[in-house]
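1st attempt posting a full record on here, be nice pls
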Amino acid sequence: MPTLITPTVAVHRSFLVAWDEFGADSRWMGARSVVSGVPEWTREQLADPAAFSAMVAAIASEAVAGTALGPEMLPQTVLWYVDGSEWLGRLSIRHQLGPAFAEVAGHITYGVRPSYRRRGYATAMLRESLPVAAALGIDPARVTCLVDNVGSQKAIEAAGGVLQDEYEGKLRYWVATGRA
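the predicted structure (as tokens):
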């Protein structure tokens, strides 16, 4: 059964296959760390298990207090959606919203591997992330999507998202995390 987990080297092979599926839209793979001084990885570099392991470590450090982050970057928890050793998608939870993210990006962003779309995984990922966001002190969470991304709109609304407005080509929602 698919679940959100912390990034792991156990999905190396399927991560690379997913990268190929995303093609030019590989930004969803998360190969650009928010950690200061960490370069953006290429698909070719990540074929090397040592480089992949370094990327996984850098991603984990993004959530650690005191990690030096790049300009305008914020701490975030990155989770991967996997089914066994199969990488299905990624989700990021920004611990707070700064000027660069408050208006158009939001707390939670996600992407599902192209060959696994239209199976309800975006909704499942978002729902599963809400307790994590709540534990980080986030409630409600801002989640956005492009105005023409009907699948993402449905996922956000199915997870309880309430539309705030449209802003610069994006729909901005608030989603309760259940924080007590």
